[in-house]
């Protein structure tokens, strides 16, 4: 019986496609920003950017940085700009005067005595406007200058955001690798059980097949010929090759986990091959009495563990 090996140290990190990071920066006393990176599973690299208007240059640079860091996954990038409470609110005196004059004109035309209330005037559109206190430049120019500052600030802090995202993805990847190693160990134990039953199953199957052929032929057949036919039928239920290939796949799986790196698609393909061997094993042992029933149960257990591994592998980069 093989013993479950202890997990070897990874040559390269294993990354999950799931991760999150969030950093904050300040450009001026009144302008700050928040950058959030959220990564989830996806077959390919899919970048979804939620950026403020006027940040096309920053978006392109962020895309390049993310593509150099992440191989697969759906990544949402959200940049939020916040303005501080030091903004000033000003009243548009000219607009207020226009509203009052229009109200009085309408009242005179219709012979009404109502006078506009201050509360009514202050609720009209455009009466208040925000101001940064400024240098006389137009608002569009101020926004462009601000965006240049924001872009420089975000790009300076981007390595920190990527490092935080990488750390979470690495932590999740290590947990997935540990779970996959545990599953592979359980598969190895099932194969050990299968190997211990295989010889007895083949012997029993050969004897029962010989007896059935002899009964059908009524003793008319040559004994040597009868034994040859029984051996051929028994060989069709032999799962020695399937066991050997499954063990080879297990060794390969462990080697890949130990090496680390980009594993998601490779391990998924290897698990598909293991599932095919398990299916073949079940088809060969179907209907065999005695130990064959236990072999079938083991085969079903193998398929269940392989499916668990495939579910976990879907999360790996």
Overall mean pLDDT stands at 80
Main β-sheet, spatial strand arrangement:
1-2-4-3
Can you tell me the overall shape?
elongated
Give the helix level as a range of percent: 55-70%
Topology as H/E string? EEEHEEHHEHHHHH
How many strand segments?
A: 6
Name a few traits of the molecule:
Butyryl-CoA Dehydrogenase, subunit A, domain 3; 3 domains; single chain; 317 residues; two-stranded antiparallel ribbon; alpha+beta; 8 helices; disordered N terminus; 14% strand
Secondary-structure topology with pairs:
Blueprint: E1 19-26, E2 31-40, E3 45-50, H1 56-69, E4 73-83, E5 88-91, H2 93-109, H3 118-122, E6 128-131, H4 139-217, H5 223-236, H6 240-259, H7 264-285, H8 291-313
Parallel strand pairs: 3-4
Antiparallel strand pairs: 1-2, 2-4, 5-6
Helix pairs in contact: 1-4, 4-5, 4-6, 4-8, 6-7, 7-8
Description:
The protein has about 325 residues and is an alpha+beta fold. The chain folds into three domains: about 20-85 and about 140-170; about 90-130, no CATH class; about 170-315, Butyryl-CoA Dehydrogenase, subunit A, domain 3 (Up-down Bundle). The protein has eight helices and six strands, in the order βββαββααβααααα. It has helices at about 55-70, 95-110, 120, 140-215, 225-235, 240-260, 265-285, 290-315, and strands at about 20-25, 30-40, 45-50, 75-85, 90, 130. The strands form two sheets. The protein has a four-stranded mixed sheet, with helices on one face. Helix 1 runs parallel beside helix 4, helix 4 (about 140-215) runs antiparallel to helix 5 (about 225-235) and helix 6 (about 240-260) packs antiparallel against helix 7 (about 265-285). Residues about 1-10 and about 135-140 have low confidence and may be disordered.
């Amino acid at each position: 019986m093989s013993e479950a090996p202890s997990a070897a140290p990874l040559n390269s990190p294993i990354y999950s496609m799931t991760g999150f990071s969030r950093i904050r920066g300040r450009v001026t006393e009144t302008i700050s920003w928040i950058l959030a990176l959220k990564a989830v599973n996806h077959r390919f690299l899919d970048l979804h950017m939620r950026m403020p208007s006027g940040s096309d240059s920053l978006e392109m640079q962020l895309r390049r940085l993310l593509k150099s860091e992440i191989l697969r996954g759906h990544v949402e990038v959200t940049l939020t700009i916040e303005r501080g409470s030091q903004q000033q609110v000003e009243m548009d005196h000219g607009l207020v005067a226009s509203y009052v004059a229009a109200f009085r004109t309408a009242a005179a035309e219709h012979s009404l005595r109502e006078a506009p209330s201050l509360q009514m005037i202050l609720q009209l559109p455009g009466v208040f406007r925000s101001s940064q206190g400024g240098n006389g430049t137009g608002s569009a120019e101020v926004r462009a200058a601000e965006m240049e500052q924001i872009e420089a600030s975000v790009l300076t802090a981007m390595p920190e955001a990527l490092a935080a995202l990488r750390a979470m993805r690495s932590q999740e990847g290590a947990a997935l690798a540990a779970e996959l190693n545990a599953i592979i160990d359980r598969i190895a134990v099932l194969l050990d059980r299968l190997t211990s039953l295989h010889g007895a199953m083949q012997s029993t199957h050969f004897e029962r097949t010989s007896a059935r052929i002899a009964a059908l032929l009524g003793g008319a057949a040559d004994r040597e010929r009868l034994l040859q036919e029984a051996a051929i039928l028994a060989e069709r239920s032999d799962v020695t090759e399937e066991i050997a290939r499954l063990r080879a796949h297990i060794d390969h799986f462990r080697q890949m986990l130990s090496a680390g790196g980009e594993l998601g698609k490779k391990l998924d393909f290897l698990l598909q091959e293991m599932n095919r061997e398990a299916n073949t094993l079940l088809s060969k042992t179907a209907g065999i009495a005695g130990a064959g029933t236990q072999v079938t149960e083991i085969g079903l257990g193998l398929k269940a563990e392989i499916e668990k591994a495939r579910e976990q592998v879907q999360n790996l980069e």
